[in-house]
Specification:
The protein is α+β, with helices and mostly antiparallel strands. It is 39% helix and 22% strand.
Length: 106
């Protein structure tokens, strides 16, 4: 199992709405994440907008490609893009750069 951690930056003026959107993620989006291999997926948000994402998957690039191919993900990413300060590749999912894991206690 591959553990993946990534960082993004949410605009401070959109923090509350960002949190509210994630309390009501579309059921079809949740199903798509499960079907494409996203496991133990969590998002953590600091008050200044730093977003830390964590997930486990067999193959991160395959899981990302699986989501990128789905219409529900295209709709979700289009709606969520304005929440972020800077997206290097246009959408949050395409801009996720996995951090290097340097330690794991297990």
């Amino acid at each position: 199992m591959q553990r993946v951690c990534f960082l993004l930056k949410v605009r401070q003026d959109r923090l509350e709405e960002y949190k509210a959107r994630h309390k009501a993620v579309w059921p079809e989006m949740l199903d798509a994440l499960h079907r494409t291999g996203w496991r133990n997926y969590s998002l953590f948000l600091r008050p200044d907008g730093l977003l830390v994402g964590y997930l486990e998957t067999e193959d991160f690039e395959k899981a990302r490609a699986g989501m990128a191919a789905l219409e529900v993900n295209k709709r979700w990413q289009a709606e969520m893009a304005p929440f972020f300060e800077k997206l290097d590749h246009g959408t949050a999912d395409a801009s996720m750069m996995a951090l290097e894991e340097v330690f794991h206690l297990d």
